[in-house]
TrEMBL record:
Keywords: Lipid droplet. InterPro entries: Perilipin (IPR004279), PLIN1 (IPR042998). This is PLIN1 protein. The gene is Plin1. Pfam families: Perilipin. GO terms for biological process: lipid metabolic process.
Length: 96
C-alpha cells in the first residue's frame, strides 16, 4: 500500500493537534452563538455540495493523471521524510 502524503501530514502531531483545537473552537462558537450556528450550517452544506460536484467532475481527469499523481505523491513523501528529520518540532503537539 502506497503512503499518502496528505494522510501523513494530517497525522503529524503538530498538524493534528492544530486541527483538533480549531475544531473545538468552531464547535464551541456554534454552540455559543445560535445565529452563527445557522450561518455555519448553511456554509457547511454548500461546501459539501460543491465538493461532491467537483469530485464528480474531476474523476475522469484524476483517473487519467493517476500515474503522475503517484510520482508526485512519492516525491512529496520523500520531502516529508526529510522535513521530519530536520524539524523535530513537527512530532510535538502545538502546546509543546
Amino acid at each position: 500500500v502506497q503512503e499518502n502524503v496528505l494522510q501523513r501530514v494530517l497525522q503529524l502531531p503538530v498538524v493534528s493537534s492544530t486541527c483538533e483545537t480549531l475544531q473545538r473552537k468552531y464547535s464551541s462558537t456554534k454552540e455559543s452563538h445560535p445565529l452563527m450556528a445557522s450561518v455555519c450550517e448553511v456554509y457547511e452544506r454548500g461546501v459539501q455540495g460543491a465538493g461532491a460536484l467537483a469530485m464528480r467532475g474531476m474523476e475522469p481527469v484524476v483517473r487519467r493523471l493517476e500515474p503522475q499523481f503517484a510520482v508526485a505523491n512519492n516525491l512529496a513523501c520523500r520531502g516529508l521524510d526529510h522535513l521530519e528529520e530536520k524539524i523535530p518540532a513537527l512530532q510535538y503537539p502545538v502546546d509543546k
